[in-house]
Write a structure and sequence with these properties.
By secondary structure, the chain is an alpha/beta fold. The protein is 29% helix and 24% strand. The strands form three sheets. Strands 14-13-12-11-10-8-4-3-2-1-15 form an eleven-stranded mixed sheet. 43% of the residues are buried.
């Protein structure tokens, strides 16, 4: 793997661009959560596919797809960021999160499972927390069967599984995520099985736009608040979201929402995950893609405004 460029702010997030095989480009990210220092929480976000075949309406990773990354391609991304910060391989971080959510739907790549099996043995870290974020595409049952086995065998309660739901309205879900995928009933059934008492609740993610439809009664029909929590995120300013006229109803200035109030009243833990708005300028947030920016060369308000700089070939 050859890292050739990066962009960002060392105190918030850095996006790396690398050539992995046959001229294919991959992106990966390291980020912090100010004011927490790196020793308290450090998040690595890696790619699992070259692009993504799903084509979510607000995600810039879905405008191309060139195949799956192999196990070692994924591990190389993690290795690069670990060795850059901790050359001796010891990661003295209280919460060391590794998220499989930069480029690509992870359930399309069984190599993600192979990586999860390697993590506890490969890195000398006190607390590795893997995060798998998925839309649960149809035809990926084998992936989820193995994910369940690996989680129980190696991680037990220290694992974060997140389903991207985005709406309880079927037509809107299908428009936002235009591939065949599990319905709410199947997601709920799997989540019930995956959940370990005393462990982390299963996360249901909604990128809240002005047109989002979330029916709290429909949520309660499928998802037990004792086992599932709600994560609300903004719709990030991407080329796709602008092209499809999807406007975020959540901003740093506007954090109140009737939907959030109704979900809380229904008994759900609701996490409002806005983070640092500067990450939109960096292009490190979910759905953003520096490769797309370099191709388009068009400015988006509050997005992709950081310069991309070359990285010396010696790393």
């Amino acid at each position: 793997m050859k890292v050739f460029a990066k962009t960002g702010n060392e105190e918030i997030a850095t996006v790396y661009l690398a050539e992995i095989s046959h001229g294919k480009i991959v992106e990966f990210v390291e980020s912090l959560q100010p004011p927490l220092p790196r020793e308290d929480k450090w998040v690595l976000i890696v790619s699992t596919l070259f692009g993504c075949p799903v084509g979510c309406r607000f995600c810039d990773s879905g405008n191309f797809y060139k195949g799956k990354l192999e196990r070692d391609d994924i591990l190389c991304q993690i290795d690069y960021m670990v060795k850059r910060r901790f050359p001796d391989g010891v990661v003295p971080v209280k919460k060391f999160k590794i998220q499989f959510s930069r480029m690509g739907e992870p359930a399309f790549n069984m190599a993600v499972i192979d990586v999860l099996e390697q993590l506890p043995h490969r890195y000398n870290a006190e607390n590795i927390l893997p995060v798998v974020s998925t839309i649960a595409p149809k035809g990926t049952s084998k992936f989820f069967e193995r994910l369940f086995e690996v989680k129980n065998g190696l991680y037990e309660t220290n694992f974060q599984l997140q389903f991207s739901i985005h709406s309880t309205d079927r037509k809107l879900r299908d428009w936002l995520m235009p591939v065949k995928k599990w319905g709410l009933d199947r997601i709920a059934s799997y989540g019930e099985k995956f959940y370990n008492r005393g462990g982390r609740k299963i996360t249901l993610n909604f990128a809240l736009s002005t047109d989002t439809i979330i029916d709290q009664d429909e949520m309660l029909k499928y998802f037990d608040p004792e086992k599932f929590l709600i994560k609300i995120t903004p719709v990030n300013p991407t080329y796709q979201s602008i092209m499809n006229n999807i406007t975020s109803s959540i901003t740093p200035e506007q954090t109140e929402s009737e939907i959030i109030a109704l979900l809380k009243a229904a008994g759900y833990d609701v996490i409002l995950s806005i983070g640092e708005w500067e990450e939109n300028q960096i292009g490190s947030n979910c759905g953003q893609l520096i490769t797309r920016y370099l191709k388009e060369k068009e400015k988006i308000k509050d997005s992709y405004t950081f310069s991309v700089v070359d990285v010396p070939t010696d790393g």
